[in-house]
Amino acid sequence: MTREGPGRIFRRIRQYSVAALVFGLAVGCSSDGRSDPPAGPPAGAPADLGALASKIGCAQITGKRNVRDLRQGTCRTPQGRYTMVTFGTDQNRDAWLTEATKWGGAYLIGSRFVVVGTPQSLGPLKEKVGGELKMGDAHH
């Protein structure tokens, strides 16, 4: 058996913590296994990331990520840098927000989408795309 130094142990703990967070987000965005019929319409494809970017005024979306019920991309305009995330359902959006807001930040929350930016850049954006502005938890 190999002895590990404190640096390696902390790296492993960090790796396992990140893996647990990713797993928790994936589980939070998936079915809970119950066979009850859905209360609303069936989940659809995530809201259109390109349409959201166009409303914001983004010329190009970078850093695109596509997973089962989530689309993510970033863009920059003269007003600021934005991370846009779209979802197939508001329930999955809310599960994502529960985890994301723990890390602080400013969020513009709309139907099946979230835009992350600064409070100063998201305020005027609210008029273009709708939604409600929410601040994440403060870390000191």
Automatic annotation (TrEMBL):
Q: What is this protein called?
A: Lipoprotein
Q: Which PROSITE patterns does the protein's record reference?
A: PROKAR_LIPOPROTEIN (PS51257)
Q: Look up the domain of life of the source.
A: Bacteria
Q: Which organism is it from?
A: Actinomadura graeca
